[in-house]
Amino acid sequence: MARWLPVVLLLAGLVRTDAQIAPRVEIYSAYTDNVFSTYQAQSDWMTFSYVDFDLALTSQTDLFYAGSASVFTDNDDLFSHTHRIGLTRYLHWDEEMWVTGTIDAALRLDRSTYDFRDYLLGHGVLEMRYRPRSAAWILSGSYETKVQQYTQSADYSFWENRARARWSRTLRPGTSLQLRTELATKSYLREADPDLLTEVLFGSTNRDRHLLQWEGGLRIGQSLADWAGLQLEASRRQNLGGSGRLDASIIATDDDLFDDRFNYEGQNLGARLKVLGDWGSEISVGARHETRDFIDRVAYDLDGYSLGTTRSDTRLSLNLGVQKTFWLDNPWLSEISLQLDLMRRDVNSNDPYYDAASHTVTTGILIGF
Length: 369
Hints:
By secondary structure, this protein is mostly beta strands. 6% of the residues lie in helices and 63% in strands. It has 3 helices and 16 strands. It has helices spanning 5-15, 196-202, 254-258; strands at residues 21-32, 44-56, 61-72, 80-93, 97-110, 119-130, 137-150, 158-172, 175-188, 210-225, 228-241, 264-276, 281-300, 306-327, 335-349, 356-368. It has a 16-stranded antiparallel barrel. The longest helix is centred in the first third of the chain and has 11 residues, at 5-15. It is globular and about 60 Å long.
């Protein structure tokens, strides 16, 4: 994808004939020693590119397009590209409250080996933020809905709804607290056939493919100095009902399409330290510990025999990032941001296929016009 960078930059520059248009380009190159996050540990070089165009149609309405492409050197069948177009409308805006609404549609296309991932998507979100004058707290909320239709795997097409609320407060100078909660539903557009294996192993006869999940969390931010800050967070995800799996012995793509947030529950703990370095750079160091207890997902040994239990993972991720942004006083170019990220992830799973570690090095550039 790097060879297309001059073309992308040229097109982005040509369309900026009016200050109302805001193009943006991001390109990342990464190397990982475990591209599939399995015990087989296959390495690969990857390139991810993103192009965004925002056009202010009026003072209250924006039209946007976002395109992305993923290229893999050794596993070129993983190539995919996604295109999204939509409208954002500023419904209300004053000193205390603003309300926005967004509607958009998206298309994803893969190569033939992975075309079961191809989809069409319709999406909408309504967001609100309220802060009384002179108050030390902010209340925000949103409702989001989307319908995702898999063009080659219709059994996994779904309708998803999410309602979120977040309360943030400044406790004292340099200290902030944020509480959040979310309730989400996911309804598959096709009823599941009985999964005999799951019923025999676990006595489960619940094939209701209308899932309900709650997530809650808190985040504390603490300023350590003018040049450093610490952020701590904890969250819990809990499934309240439903099951989405089809019979995995029939659908070979089940694990691929079903590995989403509704497939598991558990908790998440994270910490991140951010430091302002020399020459205006930003350095961040982070750690995250996560448990995932999967729903109706049988654990197997490496010979393919059931272990008589559901899959459960413990994940530890360590991250080191460096970013430097150059702000430019130029009518055509507003910013250039350079990034370097190092990541290690260890997955301790009772399913030996997923019991693995991975290391990833990513470099990137962001260009805002």
